[in-house]
Specification:
197 residues; Glutaredoxin; 2 domains; 4 helices; elongated
Amino acid sequence: MSEILSKKEFKDSEREKKEKEKKTMERKRKSKKLAKRFFILAIILAVGWGIWRWAKTSDKNLPGVEIPQLGRNHINLKDQHEPYNSNPPTSGPHYGTPAQADFYEAMLPDEQVLHNLEHGYVWISYKDDTDKDLMEKLKNLQKKYSWKTIFTFRPQNDSKIALVSWGRLQKLDNYDEKAIINFIKQLRNRGPEATPI
């Protein structure tokens, strides 16, 4: 009788092993299936995010006009360089030290502000420093949108206001707050060098 029980125990043991193996295989199959689903979902999300990002930042949707880039070389103070290809310039040789984000009633060298553009700043320059009403409006805008913006007096402008980012330029003959805010929101922090400030 004990021999029969041993055979029965052996069979039961084998059956339990097979059931455990079957359950283990089933769990592995389900895990692989789940991993495959997560992988496919991750690819779909990545592609969707890429399309959304492209549509959001596509150059055709950006304000202003694209200006061919002249490089990002650093130069020393007072160094001579080739003329810029836009007024104000949107890229090209520039000093190694940027200006502080602020509203300036004085002129700053183009070569200095270009370094800010390289870091993703938006530069708003105005032509007439006797237009106190315009200056006050711009000063208030700079306070509201102070991160990575620099506002300066620039008499060389050929328009009343110039909106500049790295490689892009929009000229305004009149104060247009919506256009300025749109330019800032869409082009701020898009320079070739990502910096926190």
